[in-house]
Amino acid sequence: MLFSINAEDFVREFKPIIQIVPVHTTFPILSNVKIEVEKDKLNIFATDLDTSLLYSTNLCKTEQSGVIIIPAKTLFSVMGEIKGNTVFRKEENRIKIEYNRGYFYLPSMEEEDFPSKPLINEEETHEVNTKELEEIIDKLVFIVPEDSSKRKMSGMLWEYENQNLKLVATDSFSLGYKDIAVNLGKKSFKVVVPPKILKQLSTFNSQKIKIGVDESRIYFLGEQFTLVSNLIKVDFPNYQAVISETSDNILSLNRETFLDSLRRVSVFSNDRPKTINLNLGENLTVEVFSEIGESKEELEGKYKGTEINIALSSNYLIDFLRKIKSKNVNLSFEAKNKPITIEGEDKEIFYLLMPITIE
Predict the structure, then answer these.
(1) pLDDT digit string (tens) for 141-173?
(2) FRET pair for 52, CA 20 to 30 Å: which of 161, 305, 332, 344?
(3) pTM of this structure
(4) Which is nearest to 318 in space by CA: 292, 353, 347?
């Protein structure tokens, strides 16, 4: 095997791959990637057994085809320190990488020891607009908890029926959801998708992708990549039970102004969720009283409803407001102990947040 490629090109193309390679694994072979060279094309394959990525690039010049299994992290780190052209040459059980100031060697593992590429049925995939889907995923995936004890919430729910896809994420304290009109076939499904594969989608620059779902996997096909992941087999929480259809108590205000107030006032909150108090009635205020100080601001907005005093996490509110792009936002309240709804005036995303109980 013998090919050449610009080091900067290689590092840029390799970035999606390195995110798949596991940091810690009981199977050392998974710390490697499989690089197959043919006709000025590199096919790079990585997997952690749950998620797999096959990525192709034509930015190389091939002199001799072949396959190598090579340590991913070391290769990526070293190539990031090199400028200009590099030459990859296989010499028995190791790979020599030459560049303008020298060379280095890396071991090459046996091809038969590396996992095989997952088989998929491309005929069962359906094309969607990547940008619209990625924007919704970005507004939801950060909610998915990293805490392994919250197994039922460790992924994002995809619920599809009659060309309507609902995406839902929750961590038990907050929830986000959005419906999108999309054609993913005639068959309905309800699956829980791992966040890793969803975050990976944003690393590709594809206007269109194909999506397929079977009993145990979800896969995404782009011009340069095939991304496959096992689904999470859990009973997702009954999110519909906490979604209220209507509310008579609605606070409307400018998103940026509200965000600025929360940032200032929450400085004086000394607990983990950065608790703030919203006082809604004839006067609209946000305030914090704590051991490190106190702060109170009047809010510029409109409130319709009964008087409510409620404690909320400013951390969550700030995260939600950052994701909403509408100029103005609406916060809907049912009661002091009920979740509130946060949404933009354009209704591009919906968030729910549980209040904090003050002892």
Answers:
(1) 999 998 766 778 899 999 999 999 999 999 999
(2) 161
(3) 0.90
(4) 353
